[in-house]
Amino acid sequence: MAFLHAVSTGKSATKSVLKSRSLTPYLLLAPGLIWLVTFFIIPIFSLGSTSTMVRPEGAQIGVYVQELRFANYVDAFLANQDQYIRSFVYAGLATILALLIAYPLAYAIAFKSGKYRNILLVLVIAPFFTSFLLRTIAWTQILADSGPVVSAIKVLPFIDDLFRINNTSTAVVIGLAYNFLPFMTLPLYASLERIDPRTLEAAGDLYANGLTTFRKVTLPLSMPGLVAGTLLTFIPAAGDYVNAAILGNPGTKMIGNVIESRFFAVVDYPTAAALSFTLMATILILVTVYIRRSGTDELV
Amino acid sequence: MTTINAPMPSLSHRASRWFSRNLIRIYAALAFIYLFIPVAYTFAFSFNDAGKSNLVWQGFTLENWQNPCGAPQVCQAVVNSLQIGVISTVLATILGTMIAFALGRYKFKGRKSTNLLIFLPMATPEVVLGASLLAMFLNLRVNPGFWTIVISHVMFCISFVVVTVKARIASLDPRLEQAAMDLYANERETFRYVTLPLVMPGIAGAALLAFSLSFDDFIITNFNSGVVSTFPKFVYVSAARGIPAQAYVIGSAMFFIALIIVIVGQVVSRKRKKI
Questions:
Q1: Which terminal CB of chain A, N or C, has fewer other CB atoms within 10 Å?
Q2: What contacts A178, CB < 8 A, 6 or more positions away?
Q3: ipTM of the predicted structure?
Q4: Which fold has domain B72-243?
């Protein structure tokens, strides 16, 4: 991530220009940080407050009062644990799939693209410019039961006539991996691009074969990009509900779908808030453990 | 290459060697096909003579492109999205650039917590950002609408602006600023005539990123929009009963407009480097 870049290149270079003991940095920070505190931090507390509210007997729909009922969390989790676990399984599978697609792609752009490098980078981001909802809906057509992909697979032997992709968990995972692929590719590219090709040649000179060079040199050096990319894919994927809503079926609902329907269809704010809070806490814990384990603490 | 003196290998051998040497390029090409299939599909179906529901190919027509506002409410949604995108981009770019300069150019207490506050919104799923902001608006009895969408978009765009601009500031050669100072430019002049122009490409990139994030956002918007429609919201809502082909026209047009902006930007910056 760019943080790393800033840390590694900026430290010695900016020393001479750093000014201290002045009010200027605080004046520069204030407006943006006030915005973030007001519309990000305080809402998180608001969410926490809503999560322990209770609907009084006979009250109107959507009216809740604070009773600090922490059992809301237990109720919400027990009623939705399938969707909860499914979210992390799908997000994990989508992250692995995206990594398998993005790593060779980023490697090819960093080392094999020559003068076409900038064009290829633009092409990685370009699909983003078409609304992601339209692209997700396009996948439902491409993976449709009578569509080209399913028809092609059905030609193979041992494939059941009832074989389908649309409205299955496979389709949801494909959609998630697709939608967050640039988030995986760009950080991977950023850290691969900074590897000096001579280090790879040196590994070859020291009789490392291609696989050993990759395992001992390329992969460790690309670790920061790999960590950033997997996080940037996993986090939004775990909270996503669009892919499950468009490409899945009622049995592939993720926690995001539950939160959305609790908020809007059922108007059960406390349950929705409790689920959101649990999701956020789980992700923060996973992210912290993951960053510690992978030894890239300087990421934040 | 050391193949000059080697005997001519057989054709199948050469083919397999070409294949293994270019394996990674072939793989990358396949990945690009995967990336672009839905875009190509969207573009193709923008020419579909579809009527109300654009699901099956009915025949070629230019009518959707000639009359992109033909479907009810499409253009109102696009106008809303454009307005929200522009206002959010301007605000987020100004606020984020200021933070990036503070982080990249000054020593101050609280740098760690500032970095954490910038990082957290990016590490929080959109559904949580959207739900928490809506919970606050509900608790304060604020009715969601146009301005609550703007507030939410500025909030999630700031972090991306900070990260982008900060990286650009960090990559500057500080000797350029020192040279300006040596030539008797004061601090303000140095900033105005040296630092800011050098950071400008980063700021422009950040603004483009913020606009595309805002224009394409659905989840946070859906939570905080009340009855106001945006283009992604229009697509999602109409998905149930069939999306009009005009939406595909707008999706494709946005793709080409953004691509042109990026390519022009690259060409301009390359020309400047040559001078």
A1: C
A2: A135, A136, A139, B34, B35, B38
A3: 0.86
A4: MetI-like fold (1.10.3720)
